[in-house]
Amino acid sequence: MTTNPANYTEFWDFYVAEHSRPMTRLLHFVGTSLGILLLAWFVWSGRWYFFPAFFVVGYAFAWFAHFVVEKNKPASFRFPLWSFISDFKMMWYMVTGRMGREVARVLKEN
């Protein structure tokens, strides 16, 4: 696995390895979910100008997970768009029960 991915496929494997601990993934899931709920509420209530809170809440949980649980730097520092997309992909894999297998696959290859 490369730490300097050239495409999204390589990045995904890097991302998965950087989220190898279940607590890291759980904190990402909680933060992103709360952020989405806030965003929906802001739009619904007409307070769309508060939408940056979506990012603050989501990234606060994620960065806490990286610095305290995983003890690595968030991938969003170097790859913000791919990281943002991957947060949602990881959530989908978690909901569908595939994330554990994905982590095992990536860690086995390294």
Briefly, what is this?
Helices cover 74% and strands 0% of the residues. It is built from 5 helices and no strands.
Question: What is the topological layout?
Answer:
Elements: H1 8-18, H2 22-45, H3 52-70, H4 80-95, H5 99-109
Helix pairs in contact: 1-4, 1-5, 2-3, 2-4
Number of domains: 1
Q: What's the oligomerization state?
A: single chain
What's the helical proportion of residues? Answer: over 70%
What is the count of β-strands? 0
Report the major sheet. none
The rounded Rg comes to: 14 Å
Mean pLDDT: 92
Strand residue percentage: under 5%
For the record, give the distance between the C-alpha atoms at the N and C termini, rounded to a whole number: 6 Å
Compressed to H and E, one letter per element, the order equals HHHHH
Count every helix, treating DSSP H or I runs of 4 or more residues as helices: 5
Q: Would you identify the regions where 5 or more consecutive residues have pLDDT less than 50?
A: none
Features:
single chain; 110 residues; mainly alpha; 0% strand
How would you describe what is shown here?
There is one protein chain. The chain starts with 7 loop residues before the first helix and ends with a helix. The chain is elongated. It has one domain. The mean pLDDT is 92. Helix 1 (8-18) crosses helix 5 (99-109) and helix 2 packs antiparallel against helix 3 (52-70). It is mainly alpha-helical and 110 residues long. The protein contains five helices and no strands. 74% of the residues lie in helices and 0% in strands.
